[in-house]
Specification:
mainly beta; 13-stranded antiparallel β-sheet; two-stranded antiparallel ribbon; 3 helices; 41% strand
Length: 271
């Protein structure tokens, strides 16, 4: 029987450059710069940006569409600008997005997320971020900055493992009920940098990392509308299968017994 073991955690750095990895490769896969393929430390993945920006009028969108474009900061983290923020709707907001977030700019709330398609099934164990949101709205709808401790405490992410990559023109409810094989949420923490520990036991090739979205689960202190990040890397493990133990086939085993019996009989007749 083949034995399944789990390899130690591997990191996928999704920056366009990684000077610590001689095999690092990066390539845009979309002319709109909203998807790319990256190879990091021997793992290849396609990363794309998405948000619920279609299906209704301005503030009531619920259908998922590809982001307008992705943008990398000087620390190797990725933000996305969705189609509401890019001003693609006539006479609408025309704002500019600097993170994957659920901040509700210009009176609407979209839930931005990254889809990561790995070249093999993986179990996500964590994510790192180059930046997190540090602004909140006061009672007069004015934004103001909070301190580092408050910023870390208020930011969360959601994640989901999917059966396939079919999210275009889907909804979050449909993803959860028909496509997800595991989902949850995680707090963003800080040590030497910003990170989240992901607690799941599901392996998949297709993963969502999203600004906090309560459809995928929430805790007592979870709150939508103040979560934003720039995604820098993902940690994961993979299953490895060792070769099966060598066990003689039944027919071969019977032949061996017959041969031994024949030898014993021959020795007896010679006596």
């Amino acid at each position: 029987m083949a034995a399944t073991t789990f390899a130690s955690a591997t990191q996928l750095v999704i920056s366009s450059k990684n000077h610590n990895d001689s095999g690092h490769q990066f390539k845009w896969t979309s002319n709109d710069h909203n998807a790319f393929t990256v190879t990091s430390y021997g793992t290849t993945a396609t990363v794309s940006g998405w948000s619920d920006t279609s299906g209704n009028v301005n503030r009531a969108d619920h259908i998922i569409k590809r982001a307008k474009f992705l943008e990398e900061d000087d620390k190797g983290g990725w933000a996305l600008t969705n189609r509401d923020e890019a001003g693609s709707k006539p006479d609408y907001c025309g704002s500019y997005g600097h993170s994957a977030d659920n901040l509700g700019n210009c009176g609407f709330r979209d839930y931005d997320f990254f889809m990561i398609e790995f070249d093999k099934e993986v179990l996500l164990t964590g994510a790192t971020f180059s930046w997190i949101n540090n602004k909140v709205l006061d009672n007069n709808d004015k934004k103001h900055e909070v301190n580092e401790h408050e910023a870390v405490n208020m930011n969360e992410i959601s994640y989901a493992a999917l059966k396939n990559n079919h999210v275009d023109h889907s909804t979050f409810d449909h993803i959860k009920s028909s496509n997800s094989v595991g989902h949850g949420y995680a707090e963003i923490q800080k040590n030497s940098g910003y990170y989240s520990d992901i607690n799941t036991n599901v392996h998949s090739r297709y993963w969502i990392i999203s600004a906090f979205n309560s459809i995928f689960g929430s805790g007592a202190n979870s709150h939508e509308g103040n979560d934003g990040f720039k995604l820098a890397s993902l940690s994961f493990t993979t299953k490895t299968t060792s070769p099966p133990n060598s066990i003689p086939e039944p027919a071969t085993f019977v032949l061996m017994l017959m041969a031994l019996a024949g030898l014993a009989s021959r020795k007896f007749s010679l006596k």
